[in-house]
Amino acid sequence: MDMHDKVSTGMAGFDQAIDKLRLGDNVVWQVDSIESYKKMVEPYVAQARLDNRKLVYVRFGNHEPLLEDCPDIKMYPVDPNKGFESFATTVHHLIEQEGRKTFYVFDCLTDLLEYWYSDLMIGNFFKVSCPFLYELDTIAYFAIMRNVHTYSTIAGIRETTQLLLDLYQVNDKFYVHPLKVEQRYSPTMFFPHLIRGQEAISITASSEAAELFSSIHRGEERLDYWDVVFTKAKDALTLQPEQRETTKKLLISLLIGNESRMVELCERYFTLSDILMIASREVGTGFIGGKSVGMLLARKILEQDEEERFTPFLEPHDSFYLGSDVFYTYIVQNGWWKLRTKQKTKDGYFTHAPELKEKLLHGKFPENIQEQFVHILEYFGQSPIIVRSSSLLEDNFGNAFAGKYESVFCVNQGTPKERYEAFEQAIRTVYASTMNEEALAYRMNRGLFERDEQMAILIQRVSGDHYQETFFPHLAGVGNSSNLYVWDESVDMDAGMLRLVFGLGTRAVDRTVGDYAKIVTLDNPLRLPLMNYEDQKKFSQHYVDVLSLKDNTLTSKRLEEIIPYDIKVDQQMFARIDYETVNRLNELGYTNRPLPFILDFQKLLKNTEFPKLMKDMLALLSKVYDYPVDIEFTANFTKDNHFKINLLQCRPLQTRGLGHSVEIPKLADDQACFFSTKGNFMGGNVRLPIDYVVFVHTKSYLERNEQGKYAVARQIGLINTALKGKNVMLMGPGRWGTTTPSLGVPVHFTELSNMSVICEFASNETGLMPELSYGSHFFQDLVESGIFYVAIFDGQKEVVFHPNVILEKENMLASILPQSSQFSDVIHIAKTDGMEIFSEIVSQRLLCK
Which residue would you say has higher pLDDT here, 696 or 740? Predict the structure, then answer.
């Protein structure tokens, strides 16, 4: 190394002791007071100014400033209040901006505890900033307070930094004891040194060193500051109410977040004991995330009902929470923070996501976290569990993120080692899903891409029981306190609705293939939706999602396979024998076949308290939230028809306001319109102008092979981008957003996210049918994005549909997307001057002309 790469500390004797500083050095001082840190900073800064160095002071602490304002020192205030990610990213950018060979002074890192309450995160910050400073040949001074941080935080800092120095003040004398000095050595370097003026006198005599060290208090093993705060909070349980309240608010800000509607509700409903109970089941530190908060809050609201209606029916839960700080620690300790910082920029947002996703699937967890994972698995034994995303932005007012992140079932069979590996991989899978294209696009479209999206995780016991070699609950589903999908005037919107399935709820939240959840209007649970009697079987559930204990995986079985099982309750509660099919089979001579069933839940809805209880539950939650809500639940029954409901999730339901009632224009001739229908629309009262209609031809679409059908879906995505900002109505046969091209066009939600209206029409000759799957994730997305939805059942009474109104107009596809002209036979884009769509929710009328 050249002599000129050596840099003075401003103290000649000390320079001699440690053979000066080198470019790239991070220098960490362990101190007892800010005053003594300042004593070391002053000569270093004076020397740097003498040498005409570029000096930067990074200011974030609550302590007195280390340096006076001075024109040749740049001061950067950075706000730690915004959380670890924002802080680390801001510091990263300022280091990048200031460039090579800059000299830095940082405030005392211990002050960050006041904002983050987590030792772990201070260590993480140091680990991501220090190597970057080293790369740029800078020199940076840091300080930490002695006997405050855990040994593992200090070990992490020691491992990352180039110099770690203990600074002691004993009887007005200053001693520096180098603990680590990288890439230099002298026989006396690691002795304590007495600093006197410009001198540093090495204390080599054992008697003197022993005297010095015996007068210094060495701390015993220390807890993370997070645990210290929560341990102290337990003592507050015995204090006066106002002191308990102050402590509770602090803990809520650490576990749940700051100022939001959800936090207000938590402060109202949770006691200090409740919060301590949640904290006792958290692994790591940080927030527990939106999904966990929603579930806990909803349960608390129901438990506090004055009439105590709900408690006897609620299945208790014993969930665990993986704190959001673990997500960051996982990224930092595997060395991917730099990649994450690149991915968080506008340019790198989509381009770096696949690489980061791949890495997230293969990282290592810190040992202390692994130990806690083992405890969780020992606790659950061989009960199936589900690992669910619970991000900070999830399930909040305004952002549902419905289905954007993964949830992974761990069937939890096999040896402890196999079960552990599957559990760890489930967590990695949820972490990696933050980089899913749909989730990224969702965040981008809502202007959230720069917001911290820390991923916490909710670990829940799966509700249900063993039936032969499978595990499932009797019932599962989604409930909405407002029924936005009203199909005739008698439906009371405010009574709410359920989307009900037999078995696991996965079939209720996704638009499943060839299968239909049961839609229950809670004002009249036995009311049938719009369909002919003979269609009841067709539009019901034919498959049941279960966990296979034998194959250790989530699987679907035909209803006929499951019905013969002893499910510990009368099957006819959920299903009835399909006598029509029995008669038909008998006529055809098939007499030995198992009895066919239809899942229609008649007995459940007619003879049990279940629908009434669900209606009351949704009404109470909605009243407290002062907003419509959306829940996920399961229910299990006993022989005597008693049942327990497990409330898995609750969030504000994203709704389009119903708006003012709309005057529907009178037509001289009913036929003189593009289409009109009674019911089968969703999105409230609207009057919307339409600039373009994008129409997919049934016949040409179905003639394409599977690959060709996917190609049509991708074209819709291109049109969605090209016509962004215009009012566009998208029309096609069957279901938009299905995963099965034979049932409709398999677009991703992001490929139709800019549309104003989405229309699904029935094609009787081909059997392509819309699905009124309100409650599924696809519909959540529609509602949340404010996209109006309509289904046209051509041929039913009170339905008028004249596709020619559009098809006679010029097809603009080739002029809008010249490279797509080969799709002109299947996609028709018409410019529709002056077309409008009108809907009125009370009369259930809809008209487009």
Answer: 696
Give pLDDT, residue 531: 54
Whether the CB-CB separation of 511 and 781 falls below 8 Å is answered with no
Q: C-alpha distances in angstroms, 512 versus 195, 277, 539, 544, 681?
A: 75, 38, 12, 11, 20
Give the list of residues 6+ apart from residue 830 with CB closer than 8 angstroms, or none.
692, 693, 695, 806, 807, 809, 810, 811, 812
C-alpha closest to that of 383 among 315, 461, 445: 461
| Residues in contact with 630: Cβ distance below 8 Å, sequence separation at least 6, in sequence order | 400, 478, 479, 480, 481, 650, 651, 652, 653, 654, 775, 780
Tokens 């063993």 found at: 466
C-alpha–C-alpha distance, residues 42 and 175, integer Å? 16
Instruction: Give burial (CB, 10 Å; 0-12/13-18/19+) of 555.
Output: middle
What would the mean pLDDT of 502-528 be, rounded to a whole number? 81
In which band, very low, low, confident or very high, does the pLDDT at 395 lie, cut at 50, 70 and 90? Answer: low
Spatial separation of the C-alpha atoms in residues 10 and 402, rounded to whole Å: 58
* Rounded-to-integer distance, Cα 555 and Cα 471, Å: 10
Same structural domain, 586 and 626: yes
Helix (H) or strand (E) holding 521: strand 518-521
Instruction: Summarize the confidence of residues 511-532 as an average pLDDT.
Output: 75
Could you tell me if 481 and 359 lie in one domain?
no
Q: What is the pLDDT of the chain when averaged over all its residues?
A: 89
Q: Report d(CA 637, CA 473) in Å as an integer.
A: 9
Residue 259, domain member (yes or no): no
CATH number, domain of 118, equals 3.40.50.300
Of residues 389, 374, 259, the one with CA closest to residue 321: 389
Q: Confirm if 255 and 226 have CB atoms less than 8 A apart.
A: no
- My answer on whether 313 and 450 are in the same domain is yes
* 682 in the same domain as 608: no
pLDDT band at 775 (very low <50, low <70, confident <90, very high): very low
**Domain assignment of residue 500, given as a range:** 474-652
First to last CA, the chain: 81
Asked if pLDDT for residue 786 goes beyond 50, the answer is yes
Confidence of residue 716 (pLDDT cuts 50, 70, 90): very high
In the predicted model, is pLDDT for residue 534 greater than 70? no
Distance of alpha carbon 102 from alpha carbon 133, whole angstroms: 9
Q: Rounded to two decimals, what is the model's pTM? A: 0.81
In a domain, 272, yes or no: no
Domain count, the chain: 4
DSSP 443-482: HHHTT-TTS---EEEEEEEPP-EEETTEEE-SEEEEEESS
697 and 741 fall within a common domain: yes
Q: Report the chain's C-alpha Rg in angstroms.
A: 32
